[in-house]
Amino acid sequence: MDWPRFRHVERQARRLSDMIEKLDVDTLSLIRLRQGNAYAEARTKCLHCTNAAECLEWLENWPHGGEPAAFCPIISLLESCRRSSKTASNAPL
Questions:
Q1: pTM
Q2: What domain range is 78 assigned to?
Q3: How far is the C-alpha of 8 from the C-alpha of 10, rounded, in Å?
């Protein structure tokens, strides 16, 4: 993998981790969904996302309790696994 591509993948992966942290996602619930397939699909969508600029801006400006990132193609999955979400404990495995 060439260096610019590696840096792009690294930045995209970091954004997914930041989004998980800011939304207080229960990572175990996320990873266990559909035996890991939901997380794998989310990671792939994030790596190929065309909304990187919006994502970065949202992450930099998002205060705790702010509005969800409507531009994000995986936001509904992340929100379903939030620690504060009642659905997180009832999420299908």
A1: 0.74
A2: 3-90
A3: 5
